[in-house]
Amino acid sequence: MSRLVILTLGLAVCFFYLPIVVLGIFSFNAASTMAFPLSGFTLSWYADLFGNEAFLGGFVTSFLIAQPVGLLGALIGLMAALAVTSPRMKFRAAFAILVLVPFLVPKTVLSIAQAMLMSWVGLGRGATALILAQTLVVIPFTTTILAAVMVRLDPRLEEAARDLGATPWQSFRRVLLPQLSVALSAAYSIGVILSLADLTISMFLAGRTQPLSLIVASEFRRELKPDLNAMQVAVLVLTVLIVALTEINRRRRLRGRMAHIRDDL
Amino acid sequence: MASVLHRAHLAVPVAFILILGCVLPLAVLLVFSVFEVDLDAFTLVPAFSGQSWTQMFTNPVFTFLIGKSVVSGAGTALLAALIGYPIAVSMTRLPVLWKGIGSIVLLTPLYTGEIVRIYAWRVVLGSEGLVNAALKWLGVIDEPVKFLLFSPFTTHLVLLYNNLPFMVLAIWISAELIDKRLIEAARDLGARPIDAFFKVILPLTTPGLAVGVFTVFALAAGDMMTPSLLGGTSGATPMAMIDNLFGTAFDWPLASALSLSLLVILFAFATGFVTILLRFDGARAVFRRGAP
Fold this sequence. Notes:
The structure holds 2 protein chains of 2 kinds. Chain A is mostly helical. Helices cover 80% and strands 0% of the residues of chain A. Chain A is built from 11 helices and no strands. Chain A has helices at residues 3-27, 44-51, 53-84, 92-104, 107-121, 127-150, 155-163, 168-197, 200-205, 212-222, 226-264. In chain A, α1 (3-27) crosses α11. Chain A starts with a helix and ends with a helix. By secondary structure, chain B is mainly alpha-helical. In chain B, β1 and β2 form a beta hairpin. Chain B is globular and about 75 Å long. Chain B starts with 10 loop residues before the first helix and ends with a helix. Chains A and B meet through α1, α3, α4, α5 and α6 of A and α1, α3, α4, α5 and α6 of B.
């Protein structure tokens, strides 16, 4: 590795992590104004979080909305990926473009169009509307993840199952699904993370439901407070935890499978 | 039974969901844009009126706002390409183990919420924030620099920050696909590193570059929250305008016409960019013959 490579990547990492590190530092800083020089170490901003009912309520709401988004996103993504990687698929390109539509259309335009349609037909905005809209936006991501794994699977395994008399459902359940379990958990995590991170869709479709991102946005339009830093760091740690657990799970399964193959040999 | 139901048929329910949830709302915008609005009764009047479209094209505010968002999307995409390219190429030089770590490092900021990122930059650039404190400590300034917060500068910095990972990822993937022997061959045949870059690496990564530019352009131009939370008085976007027309002013036809214009213009520009990028010989060859 040349020095230039290290320098470039070092600068990139600094740029990506600078705001996050500053946020972290101020969340432990004793003063109530966010200014340098720092004035001492404290955990009180984190303690404050547990007393703040608006934040806790927002967090519970966000968490409860993220679960169905993750599950539905993974399920619909699985169906879409099965279809798009099927050798018998007829309108593959058209279908692939349709799956990408929620990603290609700016979220703001899509959300406002959905909000208008819903108000027009008299459906209320709120948790259900938010879950449905977020799921649609998650579909391109989950489909891509699952399809990328599916194209790398050995089709002969399924053919073998068929030859041995398995019904399509049995070969899906016993052969395909176990190979996809890790990708499915990754798809679910992406759905949960995108849902927790979302602000734009919530803006238009949450109605009276108040996810955490909306509460934070309205708080910090007014002023910056250190307990908000602590809140953001807590959300960040949670997100990284989900990513790390998914990755560890993936590696463990992979190692397990390798060991299995070695034993068979 | 096996022949009746096949996994390709799973496309039908998925397509139904996507059409109902994404295509239909966009189609309804088109319908709304020719309706009229009865402000006394707060109802939409089904009509076939060009009123909102005339307003849309004659009021300079709308054209100005759309132009502004196209310029800011294009600027962000260009900057992200210039900065993201060296990062992506550097990623390909990493040892295998570090590539996995590199991708996690690259992706983690993407997973943090929009609000976290916007908020964190406000802390960095605030009047008592990191940058001002550092400048003061260095003796460059006495008073905090105000332009760092609530300005077009901040908006564009954060738009770049939010979208750079997409660009790096797109270029990185296409750069990883390049057969390393092609570069070695170029070197063996006497090409200087700079020639090898412009004649081999750049043309072969144009598909990735095109994907990155398209993604970043669409995301940055359509962003509403970043300008509105960081841009201060300069933070007006077509989307914020549409939000106002929809919520406060109850002018759904005009809001629809504006949304559609934004969508069409974004796609026209993004497609234009991609077409120009794909003029490169190498890119055409990749599409004709598949990845090398």
